[in-house]
Amino acid sequence: MTIRRNMETWIAHGRPTSFSQRRTDFASATPWFRGVQTGFWSTNAGDPRNTRDADAKEEKYCTGLYIAGCPPAGRYIDAETVISSINGPDNNLKLIADRERETRHSLRSRIPIGIAVSKDAAKPDEHGVQTFPCAIPEGLECVALGWYMITHMWVKPGKNAKGHDTDVWMARLEKIDLAERSWWSDVKWADQPQPSMEDRDFTTKAAKETCQTCQESSVRLFEPQFVCLNKQCRDWFLVNGEHADANPANLVYHHRFLMERFDRFDQSSHDAARGFWDFYPNLYPPPDQFFAKNYPDGQGPQVSVTPQNLAARNEALLTGFSCPQCGLTNSRVDYHRWHCRNTDCRDAEGNVKPFSYHAPPPRVTPEFLEAERKTVKEKAEKPFDKLFGYLGTEELGSHILYVFDFGGGCRMTILRPQVGSVAREMSDALFQRVQEDGAAGRLGLSRRTITANGGAGLTNHFVENFGERYYLPFALGDNPMAQAPEVVRDALDLANVYTWEYFGPGKNNEWRFNELYIAAYQSRKMHMNFHDDGEKKLGPIIGTWTLGGHATFKLCIKPQYDYGRKAKDSAWMKPQEDGTIDPVPAGCTEEDFRKELKARFERGEIDGEQWTAQLQEHMDQHMADPNSKKTYAKRSLVSFNVEHGDVVVMWGPNTQRFMEHAVECKSPMRFAITLRRVTENMATDQQWEVLNKRLVTDRAFTPSWAVEVEDGVNGEAEDEVRPGGKRVKRSKAEKVVKKVKVETGNDEVQGEDEDENEAKPAEAKPTKARVMRSMSKKGKEKE
C-alpha cells in the first residue's frame, strides 16, 4: 500500500509536519541542508565528523537531498521510498565525482540523509508524470519528508548541454521511520492500520540478474526488462539497443526493488545516526538543544561572552529554526528574538500563540570590541593621507576632519571624534542606548524580504527607517520622527548639529537630515554591496555614522563612467542632447585618453559619432589586452576603515551620480546610521500600498489550511477537525502584525521626478573650519 502503481497521483491523508514558505528559511533552519541553489548537500571540509581514507584524504558525507523541478528520467517517490539523481548531466566532472564519493560514504557508514521536496516536484513533467505523488499545500516552497537511508546506487549514461557524454548517478533511499504513516500517503489508505515492525517484511530483497553480454550481475531495476548497470558493458543501460530513458514505459520500477526494506531491528544503523546527528531521531534540534547551542548565555545565570567567542556567539544567533509548535522553518528575522511567522502557530493547549524566544545579542562596549579586534588578523588599510582624492585635515569642534575631493563634483568628508572629546562620549552613549533599545525590540530592527537570484531572500542586516519615509525595493516601516524612540531623535539632532557646524546654516538647508535608517550588522559576514543613494527626491548630502565595531568603507566609480559602459555587452556612452559628454571622473579607466578625446570633441575637431567610435575602439583594445586581465567589475577607488564614532559625509552634486559605496563589516557588532534629506514624497500612493502589504507578509505567514473560524455563541470557539481525525480548539485567528499606518501629512510636497538637466539649488559648501563645542546651545540657536 506504499507503492505508486504507474506513477499514480494521490490525495495526501495528512498535512506537512515540517514545511517552509521560503527556500531561504529552509536553508537557514535545516542543519542537514544549508543550500539555496543546489539539490545536494554534504558536510563541509574540516567537519570533525569527516573521516580519512587510507591515503589520509578527507572523506565527507552526503547529508541532504532537495528534490525540485525539471526531474531527470527515473525519479520516483512513494510513501516510503525515494529514487533520485544526485547530480545533473551538466555538472562538471569533479563535482560528479565528489557527489558520488560522498553519497557512497554515507551509504557505507549508514548515515541518515534528510530529504526535502520542492513544490515544483509536484508539477507534471512533459510526459504528464509528477515526481511527488500529491500536491504541496499552496503557499509553501518546500516540505521536509524525514530521515532516509541510502540502500542502492547506480550510474547511467547522460549527455550534457554540449552533447558530450557524462555520468548521472542515481540513488535509492528508504524512509527510516516506518512506525508512523507518511503524511503524503494516499488518503484511501488512511483507515487501514499501519503495519507494525513485527508485521513488516524485511526478507524480500531486490532481484538480481546476469547480463548476457558481460556476464556481470546487476540489480533488477525495472519491471518490463532487465538493464545492465555495468558501465564497461556495451549494453550498459540499454533496452533493445536504445537508452532506457528514451521510453518512459521502460522506467517502471520492479516491485521487489521497491518493496525491499533494510532491517529496522538492527540497532547499528540507529547508533551510527545518533553518533552523527546529536538530535536524531528528530529531523530538527528540539528547543532545549537548539537554545543551548545557539544561545548558551540564556541558559544560565552567568554570561560567558569573551572577546574570543563573541563572533561565534553572534553567528549562532543568526541561525534559523524549525518551530517546535507548528513545524514552520523560520530565518532569524528579528534582531532581538527567534519568532515564528505562522499566524496559525498554536501552543500545547491549541491556542493561537506564535512561538517566540527573546535572545538579543550580548551588549558590549567599544573597548570590548577593540579587544575582540585583536583576536583576528586584518589587512591594514592605507592612512587617509595616502588615499586618492585626499585634500587635507582640519579640526572642527570635537572632530578631526579628513577632506576628499574626487573631482567632477564628487566630495567626501570624514568626521572622526577626538579621543576624550564630547563627540566620542556621545557616540559611546548612543551605542549603548541603541543596543538597549534594539534588544528590547523598540527599534523594530528586522531583516527584510528581497528578491535575489530569482527567489526570495533576506537583507544582510537588521534595519528600520524613521522620519520621512524612504522608498526601497524592500519594505520599511512608516515611523514618523515625532513617534520614534528617543535615541533615534537624539541621534538625528546630534547629526544635524555636526553638519550645521561643517556646512553652516545655508538657506537651502541641504545639510538638515529628516530621515534616519538604522542598520545592525551582527556578523563579519554581514555587509552592504556597492550601491548609491542617488534617488532624485533625496538631497545631495548623505551621512553614515558608525557605532560600535569597525568596517571597511569603499568607493568606486560606476562602471558606465569608469569604463564607458556598464558591462561587456552593453551600450557605450553617447553625447547627450544638451551637448554634454563623457564626464571623465578622476581615477577612471584610461583617464588621460578620454580627457583628450573629450577636449577634441569640445573643440569641434570630431563629432559625436566619431567620438563614440574612437572611444569604443580604444577601450575595446584596452579591455582585451590579455596582460591586463581587465573586466567591467566595480573596482574600489578608495578603501579605508571607519571606526566607532566616525561620520562619513558624502556630498557634492555628482557623488551619488558617478560613484557608489560599499561597506564590509569587520566586527561582529556594528550599527550604521544612515542620514538623508528627503525632499519630496518618494513614491505614489499605489507604490506605498504595495510596500505596506509586503511589510505585513514579511512579518507573518498564514498556511493555506489555517481557515479562520468565527467565534461561536457565548464566545466559545468552534472545533476544527484536522486531517487524521485530530480535533483541536479554534478561536478567531489573532492578528500578529499591526497594520502599517500610512501618514499623509498636508505638508508633503507632491511633484514630478526631477529632470537631471534641470537647474538645481546651489550646493551646500563647508564653512571654514572653526573650533566650537559640538553640542553648544549657541549652535542650536543659530540653526
From TrEMBL:
Q: Which GO terms describe its biological process?
A: DNA alkylation repair
Q: Where is the composition biased (Basic residues)?
A: 767-777
User: Under what name is this protein listed?
Assistant: Uncharacterized protein
Q: Which InterPro entries match?
A: AlkB-like_sf (IPR037151), ALKBH2 (IPR032852)
- Per the record, which residues fall in region Disordered? 716-783
* Domain of life of the organism encoding this protein: Eukaryota
One GO MF annotation is: ferrous iron binding
The Basic and acidic residues compositionally biased stretches are: 731-744
Looking at the UniProt entry, the stretches that span the membrane are: none
Renumbered to this chain, the Acidic residues biased-composition regions fall at 745-757
